[in-house]
Amino acid sequence: MKISKIINNNLVHFYDENNVDCIAMGRGLGFGKKIGDEFGAMMVEKVYRIEDPIRTKQFSTLVKDIPLAHLEVANMIIDYAKSSLNTKLSDNIYISLVDHIDFALERIEQGIPFENKLLYEIKHYYTSEYLVGLEALNIVERELKIKLPEDEAGYIAIHLVEAEVDCTKPNYVQDVMNIIQSVMNIIKYHFSLELNPDTLAYERLLVHLRYFAGRVINQEQASICDDKFVARMKNNFPEETECTEKIRKYLKQNYDYDVSDDELIYLSVHIHRVLMSHKK
């Protein structure tokens, strides 16, 4: 492998066998080297193959001045997240999370902690990502002997969620949580019911709302039911349908989103299951 560009003593650019611009990381990999020099695979700890050339350039610029130890810890966290969440993460995670970890460590060293005002909601609505965030704190403490506050687990979870949906819209996660909370409140007050988060029906509703809220924010529609099925389901679930009509009105007023009949039917089914779980 030949060096095409030197980022710093530990990071270099090279082109792989498919002529894709990659970044290799390894201690001393770029030290004393010049463009065109060869380097062996034994020296490489990590290879970044970021498909988008713009993101590759952003990552190259970002990591130029980041301590290698911080980058190594971020890699461990990303690898753990990929295996634990069992889902594809956008290449942007290498930019957003590496930057966040480095900044968080810098703030702690300066004695400037950040409070995460969304921590409760993140724990509740993005439990899997939050648990990865907690393990990320353990990784940082084990590798760097620095203890980050629990708030940082919430911030890490936000970056993971955004990478799961490959979304770079500002405040995406906060907007999703606001929609979920608002929909839950509409259901709660319509039926005068305290929702039980420990039931399977509630968990299924929450998962559905996460994806539904994403479609609202991205102004996307799901259309998978025929008219006869829609009419039959509305007839079977009249009270649930009345509740979802309130949800439709709320989303139109606040997000200028037209909820399709298909979406309302699936919401009605999930709401019905939640209601049935409370009767058991």
From TrEMBL:
It comes from the Bacteria. One of its GO terms (molecular function) is RNA binding. One of its GO terms (biological process) is regulation of DNA-templated transcription. Signal peptide: none annotated. Keywords: Repeat. The keyword Repeat applies. Residues 65-170, 171-280 form the PRD domain. The keyword Nucleotide-binding does not apply. This is PRD domain-containing protein.
